[in-house]
Batch of 2 targets.
Target 1
Amino acid sequence: MAADRPTAGAIPDPSPETFARTLARVSEMAVAYLRDLPRREAFRRPPEDVAERLLNAPLPQTGVSAEEILAHVEAEILPYSLGIGHPRWWGFVRASAHPVGMATELLATTMNSNCAGSAQIATHLELTVLRWLTELVGYRADAGGLLMSGGSAANFVALAAMRERHLPGTRARGIDARSERPAVYATREVHGCVNRAVELLGLGSDALRWVPVDADRRMDVTALARMIVEDRAAGAMPLCVVATAGTVNSGAVDPLADMAELARREGLWFHVDGAYGAIGAALPELAEQYRGLDLADSIVVDPHKWLYVPYEAGAVLVRDPETLHQAFATQADYLEVQDEDYFNGPLWFHERGPQLSRGFRALKVWAVMQHIGMEGYRELWRHDLATAAELRRRAEDHPRLELAPSTHLSVCCFRYVPAHGDPNAFNRVLLDRIHRDGRLFVSGTTLESTFYLRACIINFRSTLDDARVAVETVVELGAALEREG
Ligand SMILES: Cc1ncc(COP(=O)(O)O)c(C=O)c1O
């Protein structure tokens, strides 16, 4: 007779004692990881043999114990993390994650909630977090949205809502971009995910109209106004203006109020990608730059960036949440719920976005936001801004370094100026040397044909002294590279 539950080899639920031992081991490893993080290289690439072993690992046939798996993780996985969270990890737009977020993430997976919607507590928590984010950036209290995996997915959702509002019925009939000739306005400083969203939504990247920028790399609104008029005259269909509040390249915040006003006059959707920088609206000393943010039709803000929440957590907020329903809601017999059903909750998030099954992202966002609080956040943000300012000051003062003009928020771009040769080629090699050295991690970018080393400081572990260490390291490595000729 077959056993009523599988046993041999199938490794079902461990006993509570065994699970507790596993968790104790995991917590030991997590604590050790964080303790050692500042002392290790900012980035450590996995050795070839480790990578090879993993890549060639066969499909497991016989189960192995949790202890064995954790021993493997400890030996061959944890040491080769990307290193985000190191005090001088300043590449791209990647933030240190708060340990309270890590701990609650474990509980989120313990609950294994599927956040499609329903009356579960996770739905209420997500609504709460969205309301907090709305208030944090000074948006409209009646806005609504959902948590997504990050800024790329959130921008896609926002632009899908835009498409459904401005090209109603597109979901059913599709779009003929050649005859309808949609136009979406942004600057070249916009994040690449906006291009991808425009492509995925069938508008075609030819729909993107690149509006020139001013000396601060902010959208030139006079040029925007002219382009809209010209495009209309030429038979195109202007749909949307995309602003960035905190560009990846330089941290610039587009002139939101002027763009909002023009978009309103022209009847266009006004979208603000504030994945990185929207939180600046919560700092009184920066608030002036963010005037007009509240007039947006949609806003993206990423908790996994400057709110220090572990990956993945992005958010999209839309002035009229009904547009999200128009863009995404689908009917399916297997999902039918009656209004009065016990299972029915305040909202079905799967009707607002592309995912049905959704992880319980809200728990870690809720926990970290609650733990730090707005007073704590303002202090941490100001410290990040001060560290970026210190880095700029040191780069500007150093005779071998050159600071890029006009960087904002917590972005600082600078380069080593070699006595001979092509500085762009030199700094590309220098960037690789910096990565190999491991004392800091920055990324690179090109501003007006000049390649720079680029730091974006959203890292509560960074100190002002880290700016000194970073500059000294870059100068030391740059000088060594020069000596090699
Ligand atoms: C302004 C901006 N928008 C969008 C994104 C994409 O966000 P994610 O990497 O979370 O998908 C980024 C990422 O750095 C960003 O800085």
Note: The mean pLDDT is 96.
Target 2
Amino acid sequence: MRALLLILIAFAVQGAGQIRNDFERNMNKPIEPFKIVDNIYYVGASDVAVYLITTEKGHIILDAGFAETVPMVEANVKKLGFELSDVKILLNNHAHSDHAGGLALLKEKSGAKLYAPKKQAKQLRRGGKQDFAWGDKLDFAPVEVDKRVRRDDKIRLGDVTINAMFTPGHTKGCTTYTTTANHGDERYQVAFVCSISALDYNLIDNKNYGSIRKDFEETFSVLRSLKVDVFLASHGVFFKLKEKLEAWKEDPETNPFVDRVGYRKFVTRMEAAFKKKLAAQKETKPNIKR
Ligand SMILES: [Zn+2]
């Protein structure tokens, strides 16, 4: 009976689907899952990132991609020798359909608990509707949050600790998660950076998000001060997933995901783009007090 119910729910959620165009379809091509470092694995699609963090007491999955990504995640977890039913905690970088769209289905399939900050929980619960920038355009299957994540919370499972850093701007609840990984005698700082692109957002007098400029500025300052050894993020393009996989094939001895310089460059580049956008918006709105 429960199996039938799950199939019906899965069908209903999948039937809703989220992929809307070729751009999104291209982000969701299947790729081989792989171990990034220590107990951290990539189980996502070609660009839509999904991470598996394993412990002896069960596992954590960060992000779910689109609803259409979930069958790949399920297959990838299995391929790596783990069980979806051992996943205890689900996390989400931010509540946009390309990262949160599959959460309802993944939660059903795994039975895991979803943890999220208050502002993100609100968006997840209403399936991305009433987004400050997109309105109801990029909606997805709504999902209940089981546990609230507070600023600088430490999420613990087995011997793994994950820190929650609030990095709002791209969305109000954008959260960057960090953890540590062992590599020989070394301890690596690992960061799963939330999106920090300002898209075509109104940064100056945004009626739906009054603190957007301040939030972005604080986020950049926080990320600039963060020490990162292993740089990961919500989209493969942000941390050059494709290029790094090719480089790893060429030189299997050097793990390309250990990329301190790449992390700093990414934050610098995104902050420069934000500042440029802000300056351009100030030009076209000369009456706004600076
Ligand atoms: Zn996004």
Note: The chain has nine helices and twelve strands.
